[in-house]
């Protein structure tokens, strides 16, 4: 991936606490969304990984696609049913993430 957004659902960004979470191209989801909302632009790569399962993660994924990412993968540490995201928001986001010229996928891992 050229860009990784960490969107773990906190009002202030929270890093993953793992080696590489401060590497170039890794941005906290809240910071990415703030930059986009204030300036109308934010750097994204061709292939984007979003880590998180809440509203901020889906917002970051959809925004990355709008900004030109070709693929977006949403990775969440638990199952889909354990995501904090409301089902209707998930369903709407899934439709928009997989429509048109874009490609999106999800990776959910059970605990």
Structural commentary:
With 111 residues, this protein is an alpha/beta fold. The chain has 3 helices and 5 strands. The chain has helices at 29-39, 55-66, 87-97, and strands at residues 3-6, 26-28, 47-51, 71-76, 103-108. The protein has a 5-stranded parallel β-sheet. β4 (71-76), α3 (87-97) and β5 form a beta-alpha-beta unit. α1 crosses α2 (55-66). It is globular. The two termini are 24 Å apart.
How is this structure best summarized?
The chain is α/β, with parallel strands linked by helices and 111 residues long. 31% of the residues lie in helices and 22% in strands. The model is unreliable at 100-104 (pLDDT under 50).
What characteristics describe this protein?
111 residues; alpha/beta; five-stranded parallel beta sheet; 3 helices; 31% helix; 22% strand
């Amino acid at each position: 991936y050229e860009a990784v957004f960490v969107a773990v659902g906190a009002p202030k960004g929270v890093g993953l606490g793992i080696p590489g979470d401060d590497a170039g191209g890794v941005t906290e989801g809240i910071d990415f969304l703030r930059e986009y909302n204030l300036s109308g632009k934010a750097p994204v790569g061709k292939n984007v990984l979003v880590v998180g399962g809440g509203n901020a993660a889906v917002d970051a994924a959809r925004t990355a696609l709008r900004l030109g990412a070709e693929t977006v993968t949403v990775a969440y540490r638990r199952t889909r049913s354990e995501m904090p995201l409301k089902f209707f928001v998930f369903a709407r986001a899934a439709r928009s993430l997989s429509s048109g010229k874009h490609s999106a996928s999800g990776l959910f891992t059970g605990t």
